Amino acid sequence: MRTQVAIIGAGPSGLLLGQLLHKAGIDAVVIERQSADYVLGRIRAGVLEQVCVDMLDEAGVGTRMHKEGLVHGGFEMLFQGRRHRIDMHALTGGKSVMVYGQTEVTHDLMDARSAAGLTTIYSASNVSVHDFDGPRPRVLYQTEGPDGPQQHAIDCDFIAGCDGFHGVCRASVPQDALTTYEKVYPFGWLGILADVPPVSHELIYANTERGFALCSMRSETRSRYYVQCELTDRVEQWSDDAFWDELRARLDPQAREQLVTGPSIEKSIAPLRSFVAEPMRFGRLFLAGDAAHIVPPTGAKGLNLAASDVKYLSSALIEHYREKSDAGIDHYSDRCLRRVWKAERFSWWFTSLMHRFPDTAGFGQKVQEAELDYLIHSESAARSLAENYVGLPLDFAEP
Ligand code: RFL
Ligand code: PHB
């Protein structure tokens, strides 16, 4: 098989890239290790920045998001038992975020891809990427045929590594060509999804003596809640009742009273990590999204960063084919990394502010309290938080 761009991974990065390239008349094949149902079963991000919303519109998949998504102009910070609202809308000159789950985004992108008759290979095994340092890169993979495994090859102009943190693309780069930066946090998030109305109409980020908690949602009838947990905790140890009790204990009296509980539809523990691999381009191989960087979920930047990488990458590839210019390709890595590091900084800062660390006793706790107090009493501090939360603008200036 031959295509212009071979995209490894059918997560939001790979599918969005495929859609934007298709709109521009560029041929791409998506190769995914898992089945479509498996990809849709992963419950992840829930908050989209305007940049991401605009891209989904540009890709022609925004209709359901605008109908079912919830536009939020603020969120609440809970500490020392009281809630304080960050009015993002007022602080950023009218900006907001869209609450719409990653599962739904992925669903919409998959539907658009199959409606357009585009090729996606699911359940591909032993995917490997070759010759991306020369003019003719190649992707090899296997599928299960009636007589056993079948070997396939795709010749292409470019490979987009959209295969997440554990993917094959970053691992295929010569390790001396790569610099990685990493920070692992000493706790995880236990998350629950339940068909109960959200406790409040906006998100609540809580810093409490018992640890961090987050009240989020997927719709007016479906809630997503998280509590900070030990890295050694196993999800089987947490009954639904134990989760609800712990969440309730981390809320303010009014929210505690308003909390509606019910059986969980999904429950999982995610470790928290900051990670960046530099650079994000190696010849004709590009890394995008979680394949190149991870942020802790405080601040909801993971999916949004994946979308901005895809914006820079799709623009670069369109420029290459339409204008015969490789300027966008040459600037891809630097453009992405400037935005990535700002989101890394923000996610690390917000995580540090809101969680209980092993050493958050005494001095650490007093500093957290002072910073939270500063945030709600200083308009400039609140504006800085709001500006980062709604998302920094895309910057196409030469790095
Ligand atoms: P994804 O979504 O991981 O998709 C990568 C896809 O590549 C496939 N793949 C391969 N395909 C072919 N060959 C191989 N060798 C392959 N190896 C892997 C995978 O099966 C998968 O389908 O990366 P992408 O597209 O870059 O999207 C990034 C976002 O998914 C991610 O940033 C966010 O979901 C991060 N994240 C969260 N972000 C938020 O903003 N808010 C959250 O609440 C939030 N929760 C989470 C998260 C990430 C988690 N992970 C990675 C474990 C919760 C979890 C548990
Ligand atoms: C979510 O709804 O899953 C969510 C929302 C905000 C975050 C992280 C996760 O900061």
Secondary-structure map with pairings?
Layout (H helix, E strand, L loop, with lengths): L4 E4 L3 H12 L4 E4 L4 H6 L5 E2 L1 H9 L4 H6 L1 E3 L2 E5 L2 E5 L1 H4 L5 E3 L2 H14 L4 E2 L3 E6 L7 E8 L2 E8 L2 E4 L17 E16 L9 E5 L2 E7 L5 E7 L10 H10 L3 H6 L5 E15 L2 E2 L2 E3 L5 E2 L7 H22 L3 H28 L8 H15 L1 H12 L9
Parallel strand pairs: 1-2, 1-12, 2-8, 5-14, 12-19
Antiparallel strand pairs: 3-7, 4-7, 5-6, 9-10, 10-11, 13-16, 13-17, 14-15, 15-16, 17-20, 18-19
The structure holds 8-demethyl-8-dimethylamino-flavin-adenine-dinucleotide and P-hydroxybenzoic acid.
TL;DR?
With 399 residues, the protein is of the alpha+beta class. The chain is 36% helix and 28% strand.
What is the level 1 CATH name of one domain?
Alpha Beta
- According to DSSP, the number of beta strands is 20
Tally of alpha and pi helices:
12
Task: Provide the CATH topology of one domain.
Answer: FAD/NAD(P)-binding domain
Q: Trace the largest sheet across and list its strands.
A: 6-5-14-15-16-13-17-20
The average pLDDT is: 96
User: Which homologous superfamily in CATH is the superfamily of one domain?
Assistant: FAD/NAD(P)-binding domain
How helix-rich are the residues, as a percent range? 25-40%
Architecture of one domain in CATH? 3-Layer(bba) Sandwich
Structural class: alpha+beta
